[in-house]
Amino acid sequence: MPAAVGQLGTDLPDFETEGLKQMATGAVFMMGDNPALPRMPSAPTLQEFFRYRLLELGVTGRHLLISAQKALEAGLDEDVVLAVLLHDISLPCLIRSDHGYWGAQMIAPYVSEKVAWAVQYHQALRYFADEPNGYPYPDNYNRFFGPDYVPPEYIRRDAELARGHRWYMASRQVTIYDTYLFDNGPLPDLEMFDDIIGRHFKTPKEGLGFDGSPVAHMWRTMIWPNNFL
Ligand SMILES: [Fe+2]
Ligand SMILES: [Fe+2]
Q: 66 C-alpha to center of ligand 1: Å?
């Protein structure tokens, strides 16, 4: 089953009704490991989520590695490099809409408050140029949303709040290194970030999804994205 929230308002089939019809043939609904996806280890680490999910599906996993590599090469602080590495983590395998807020929430128990904050506010700050700090309005946004697009009120409000915050530059750096070089060059080695992840991401010993944290269900949804319930 695809997630209902991504089907609303689209012309995708009504999978629920279609699935219920197929029960007449003796078919059962997806529950547990989907054989079409790589099987995740029982206590998965952040790196394993990259390996088995984020880098498997679409271009965003690659985008995260390339952006973080550039941030690392530019000599940014380790916690900001981690924020760049994780800034779009909700996009490829969980949910797209309001991805900065979802991404911040799912990493919050495991990173510093500043890293989660930088991830949350990058979404709003992306819409507002800061040329003196090296961030023009992205050409891609003109193409994605049209030149007349005006962000909604909550995005304008949060960008304004972020601009006056002591962690503004951490989130601004995320937007600066948010590079759209999806297809250029080789994929950076994930191992390049092992030390930074080790120092700044508190991987739970039970694995992400199984530590009983308030966000564990988000990680489990990425492990089993197609479960009926
Ligand atoms: Fe983003
Ligand atoms: Fe991004």
A: 14
- Helix (H) or strand (E) holding 96, with range, is none
Question: How many angstroms does the Cα of residue 189 sit away from the middle of ligand 1?
Answer: 21
Q: Output the pLDDT for position 184.
A: 66
Beta strands in 82-214 (DSSP E): none
Query: Does the pLDDT at position 182 exceed 70?
Result: no
- Judge whether 124 and 135 are in contact, CB under 8 Å: no
Positions of E strands within the chain:
none
Nearest ligand, CA 64: 2
- The contacts of residue 62 (CB under 8 Å, 6+ apart) are 55, 182, 187
pLDDT digits (tens, 9 = 90+) for 45-58: 999 999 999 998 87
Calculate how far, in angstroms, residue 100's C-alpha sits from the geometric centre of ligand 2. 9
pTM (2 decimals)?
0.96
Q: How far is the CA of 76 from the centre of ligand 1 (A)?
A: 19
CATH architecture for segment(s) 31-223: Orthogonal Bundle (1.10)
What pLDDT sits at residue 59?
87
Q: What is the mean pLDDT of residues 210-228?
A: 97
- Nearest Cα residue to 79 out of 107, 57, 60, 39: 107
Ligand 2 mean position to 119 CA, how many Å? 10
